[in-house]
Amino acid sequence: MIRLSLIGIGTGNPEHVTLAAVRALNAADLILLPRKGEAKSDLVDLRRLLCRNLLDDSSRTRVVEFDLPQREARADYLGAVDDWHGAIAGVWAELMATHLPQGGRVGMLIWGDPSLYDSSLRIARRLRSCMKSRMKSTAGREGEVEQKVELQVEIVPGITSLQVLTAEHRIPLNALAEPVQITTGRRLRERGWPDNAASVAVMLDSGGAFEALTPEGLYIWWGAYLGMDKQSLLDGWLADVAPSILARRAALRKQHGWIMDVYLLARRPL
Predict the structure, then answer these.
(1) What confidence category does residue 39 fall into, taking pLDDT thresholds of 50, 70 and 90?
(2) How many domains does the chain have?
(3) Which of 49, 153, 213, 249 has the fewest other C-beta atoms within 10 Å?
(4) Same domain, 254 and 186
(5) Domain shared by 118 and 249, yes or no
(6) Which residues contact 237 (CB under 8 A, 6 or more apart)?
(7) pTM
(8) Is the separation of the CB atoms in 30 and 62 below 8 Å?
(9) Which residue range forms the structural domain that includes residue 98?
(10) Model confidence pLDDT, tens digit, residues 160-194
(11) Do 72 and 118 have their domain in common?
(12) Phi, psi of 10, rounded to the nearest 5 degrees
């Protein structure tokens, strides 16, 4: 039996980690920390800091780091993501089999929240088949009887970048009695402003998807590295501040080697 906890840890401020997340961390037998390369070392550094500060002194939890597989850059975006998820699930299965051969509790620290534009839940759904495949392979080599794979997944919700964005700009997500749509930079660039949306929250933008929109009449609230000590904020009418956002984004990315940003667009100030 493997019990996998996907633990939302907020967006970079250790004070945003909930008491439920702290309990889940200390209940784990094994915590897996992904490394995403030197350019994004800040992300694993924060996870290391949380483990050092939040695990009880008497805790017997083991912390194991691993290199996250890289996603192929190819035209078939969804296919590339699907293959990437399969590779990650395979790595998870291997690590769990190696470090918890008799089963136990595994914790994964999820940036933000597992429910919002994060693939951990989708990867976890593929984990069971990866575990079965690995056990069949092991049983075949060693002449053992194949065991039944039992996997339970729990979610510990965390603070999202959208919550921090609206808190830092001191705004709601939507105008009074109006809907808000959450989308990605790629879809905004390809499809434009979503139908019937009074405000649009944009995540996973590789840079400047708002340039695909007619800027007149649109207000933007932008934030990068939300919750971290290098947090950066800008807001204003899109036609006025778009160049400033693009310039600051480029400068910050050059300075830090990576960037995570999110923004909210609306047809009038909220």
Answers:
(1) low
(2) 2
(3) 49
(4) yes
(5) no
(6) 215, 218, 219, 220
(7) 0.86
(8) yes
(9) 2-159
(10) 999 999 999 999 998 888 889 999 999 999 999 99
(11) yes
(12) 80, -165
